[in-house]
Amino acid sequence: MDVLNMSPTTIAYGYLAIAIICEVIGTTFLMKSEQFTRLVPTLIMGLLYVISFYLLTQTLKTIPLGIAYALWGGLGIVLTSLVGLVFFKQSLDTAAAVGIAMIVGGVMVMNLFSNSVVH
After folding, report:
1. Does residue 20 have a pLDDT over 80?
2. pTM of the model
3. Alpha carbons 56 and 48: distance in angstroms, whole number
4. How does it sit in the membrane (predicted)?
5. What backbone phi and psi angles, to 5 degrees, belong to 88?
6. Per residue in 33-86, pLDDT tens?
7. Helical residues (DSSP H) of the chain, grouped into ranges
């Protein structure tokens, strides 16, 4: 795949995906930083947050703010919850699982049916 010939929308969604991944990994290092008492996890967290926000700004050149932020926040919540379950052995009760399912549903409705979403 030739990156130079990709549409701006495809590139923007790629930036957004990487921004989300950096934010989730950064949040994982936030947990590992133990309230900023461990230097290396704190520095990694900060770097990943900076990369995440930079890529979000690049996304906003093409994708409207509300759509980009809804995707970034919604998918970030879902992925961070999964990280908590798998890596930190945190549990989700039924209400939390239903809430996360509603977030996923909202993101899907927005992407499938909204005319605001850039495709």
Report:
1. yes
2. 0.88
3. 12
4. Multi-pass membrane protein
5. -110, 5
6. 999 999 999 999 999 999 999 999 999 999 999 889 989 999 999 999 999 999
7. 8-32, 39-59, 65-87, 94-113
How many other C-beta atoms lie within 10 A of the C-beta of residue 20? 23
Top pLDDT among 41 and 3 is at 41
Q: Helices 39-59 & 8-32, crossing angle to 10 degrees? A: 160
Residue length, the chain?
119
Encoding tokens for residue 118? 């850039």
DSSP string of 66-100, one letter each residue: HHHHHHHHHHHHHHHHHHHHHHS-----HHHHHHH
pLDDT of residue 110: 84
Six token digits for residue 119? 């495709």
Structure token digits, residue 29: 């290092």
User: The tokens of 69 are what?
Assistant: 């932020």
Which residues 6+ apart lie within 8 Å of 107 measured at CB? 70, 71, 74, 75
